[in-house]
Target: Isoprenyl transferase
Amino acid sequence: MRLPRAVYGLYERRLAASLPRSSVPRHVGVILDGNRRWAASFGEPASTGHQRGADKIFELLTWSEDVGVEVVTLWMLSTDNLKREHDELTELVRIITDAVCDLAATGRWRIQVMGDLDLLPPEAAQKLRGAQQRTAAVRGLHVNVAIGYGGRHEIVDAVRSLLREHVERGTTLEQLADSFDVDHITANLYTRGQPDPDLVIRTSGEQRLGGFLLWQSAHSEFYFCEAYWPDFRRVDFLRALRSYAERERRLGR
Model:
């Protein structure tokens, strides 16, 4: 049952006011799931759901800014998504590219593209790199857009980058093996220099990571929301933050 608008607004304000600022996550990862199922529930094509989902991103970033989140990572296109039918994939890549360029055009957020852009059409990859370059000096909320992204792919890229670096230094394989530790991987991830995600949210009721930030999420808290991504509301976001604030984070200790 939906609450009357006035009652809903009061509940949302009270929920926001109850959140302890000291417990706001620095880094929130979001798996934007359920666009196609949302569209199907209305008898609409998948592209309608993808567009509605893209339109929701601006709201999420505004909510994140309002509560003091420093980094948001959005999983917008996985490496598995690249196997979809050509027509849907072409439209999806266009919608994602336009959405990222629109976010960059606001000048509010620093955009960082993470993933293998070589898997995308050259024109889309060029536009995404341009959006990143145009916001490189922007301070404030840091927004990672994971496009052509897979967690295993990222770790492979990190190891490949590490090996190339040490080849250039003249390090032998034996020397590298003797000194190799987790920090070597961390320093070569797409998110290097950023805090690991404190909270990962997945919409649409699915309760799995699906390869999202596999390395970085070792100590993350997870929140699974039943709403499809296009229906995700500010109150859903605040509930995720409340759930996070109520947990005792042991971080493996």
Summary: The beta strands are 27-31, 71-78, 110-114, 142-149, 199-202, 221-224. The radius of gyration is 19 Å. The mean pLDDT is 93. The longest strand covers residues 71-78.
